[in-house]
Structures are given as C-alpha cells and as structure tokens.
C-alpha cells in the first residue's frame, strides 16, 4: 500500500475534510491524539437520556465518525432540566430520533443512526460491528442485556449512572476486569426484590409502598400516574394500612415519598450528570485510540464512584470472577457458523457433529432465538430468512453433549453474502 505522508498527518489528512481540519484544530494539537482514528470509529450508545445525550453530544463534537443511538423512550417535559439535545423537540417525539437530528446540526461530518427500539430488537450486526458500547441506562435488566452482548462480542462497555449527588463510571474490558454478573451477591439482592409481591408479609418499610403500587396495578393494569393525586393516594392508602399493621413505629408515608418511590426515576441534576458523562466520554476517546492500535493514556479498569457532595472520587477494584456464568471459565460456548442465507437450520446438525458435538438422532436438538425481546423457537426446516435470523444472530441449541457432558451451546450465525 502506498504510504503517503498525508496518511500520517492529522493536519493534512485526506480522510478529513478542510472544514474538519479547521474544526478539530485544537484537539489535533493534543499529544497522542489521532483524529482519523476517531473518524473511523463506531460507538453504540444505549439509553439516550441524561447521560446518553450528553455523551452523544461530546462524542459528536470530538468527531467520532458513526454513532448509533438506541432508546425506547419519547421526550417528556421533565427531561429538559439536563438533556440539551432535546431543546427544540416536541414532547412525544422519540428521543433517539431527535438526538440524531440535533447531532447532525452540531457536527454534520459524522453519521448518526437512530433506533427507536429496545436494545434486544436492534440488529445484532450493529453490536458485532461497533467498536464499543456505552450505557446510559437506568434499568438493571437492560444493562445486563447489553453486558451479555459486550461479553459475547468481546466489546468494551462503558457504564455510567447517577443517583442524587453521586455517580459511577465503570468500563468493562473483556478478559481484564469483571462483567456485571461476576458478583453473585448482587444477583441475590435482585432476586429478593423480585420475590416481593402482593402476597406475603412486607419485610421492609419500603415494601409496603411497593405493595401499594402493585395493588393499584392489579386493578388498573398499569402503574399509578404520578401526576394524578387521586391515583397516588390509592397506592398510598394501601401502603399506609400495611405500615400501621407491620411498622407502626416508623410513621406513615407522605404523598411526596409515594410519588418519588412510584415514579422510579432517580433524582438528578445537570452537574453530576455532566461529570459522569464527561468521564465516560474521556474513557471512550482513549479506548477508541487503543482499539486502532494507538497509545493514548490508560483506561481505568476500576469502578469509580464520584461523591459530588464532598467533591471526591473513590475506586473499587473489580477482578473478574473465574466462576462467573457469563464471562468465566464455564461461560456458554459460542460456535460461529457461516451459512448461505438460503440454507435451512437443519444444515447446522452435520456442522455441529463435525465440531465434536453429539446428540440423540431420535430427539434432534432444537434452536431458540434468544437475542430478541421475546424468545422463540425456530423450526429445523425453516430457512434462515423464514426463521427471522439476522446476520450475527445468536441461537441457543438444546440437547448437545460433548465428551459425554451436557453443554450449553450457542451458535452465532454469520450470513454468507450470497443471494
Ligand atoms: Zn462475569
């Protein structure tokens, strides 16, 4: 390949337009910086809310070439205390769409793809081809789903979160530090919460309000609208009856407490949000250099906590857990298998056999689509297209053994580019 001097220079790069070279002039002067590496990069941002919009704005302004924005939400008035990308949006528009529109105005040289969708239904090819993932999510389930993709596609994932005057940043680095499921203790806490239903005695004061909310939901098939006092009061009265019975010494819930607990949004302010989003951005910028083989600082592998009330940072080490069921030694096996689009799923049997798997020919293994939000079975005589299998789709295969041991096996289908 021809090695022109312009390939190495940021200032005279032919990959960057004249406008970009002027726009990014100040950062081109940074030691170690490589603007072309950023231009060649693709970042996937899941959750385009407080953190996500701020990070997207930062990465667009820094000149990252491609941003994928994934969010299932629409814009509400309460987003406007911190989410700058929505300043001229109509309430009710999809967040990802408006974010992409505003980013195009901020930096027209990059490309923005919006996905008004949950993260599961986004094409797996996008996960496979992005350089790294950034989470601005507030849901534990969604974070875990994104983590699973990060582990299985071996991609770094920069997670962030804020709660009141605190925030955290944690960058998962494949094979370096722990994934979000390495710590079984936290899993158990989640299970305890999940076990809290309308039946049974509340074990904590907060459970009473949760039960009040569930009581409302059992009648109306939806959570109480926290802008309607009458609806909140139904949950509150139910909760306070339980308080009188089980925790009389603790005092009744107020209506404000009920609103905050029913409306599961953490209170947050722009300053903490901006600190955390900026830290996530900075880790992303370094990582994007590293992924292109360019040295630029070190990515922090520790869990960082920011306490905005005292202005201090704290760090926790996060060594990987070898026994982790997602990223450890016993993690499920992923077999990559390339197939033409027109093939049927039963073509997988001989290939799996070739790779040393055994199965009972009387009860052939079945195939399950596990990437999508709703898990479904794919019939063996379906073609890949009929089964709705996308490029890089992961399929769970039941009933396989290897060396007389039952194995959890996933197959990642790579579609051959033939018609
Ligand atoms: Zn793990």
User: What's the CATH architecture name of the largest domain?
Assistant: 3-Layer(aba) Sandwich
Order of helices and strands: HHHHEHEHEHEHEEHHHHHEEEHEEEE
The pLDDT mean sits at: 89
Overall structural class, as computed from helix and strand content, comes to: alpha/beta
Percent of residues in beta strands: 15-25%
Shape: globular
Query: In CATH's first tier, which class of the largest domain applies?
Result: Alpha Beta
Distance between the termini: 32 Å
Radius of gyration, in Å, reads: 25 Å
Q: Into how many domains do the coordinates divide?
A: 3
Major sheet: order of its strands?
A: 3-2-1-4-5-6-7-8
List the helices and strands and how they pair.
Elements: H1 5-8, H2 18-23, H3 25-28, H4 35-39, E1 42-46, H5 50-62, E2 66-71, H6 95-106, E3 111-116, H7 124-129, E4 132-135, H8 140-152, E5 157-163, E6 166-172, H9 184-194, H10 205-220, H11 229-246, H12 255-262, H13 270-291, E7 303-307, E8 312-316, E9 333-340, H14 348-354, E10 367-369, E11 376-378, E12 393-402, E13 405-416
Parallel strand pairs: 1-2, 1-4, 2-3, 4-5, 9-13
Antiparallel strand pairs: 5-6, 6-7, 7-8, 10-11, 10-12, 12-13
The structure holds zinc ion (ZN).
The site of zinc ion has 9 residues, from loops.
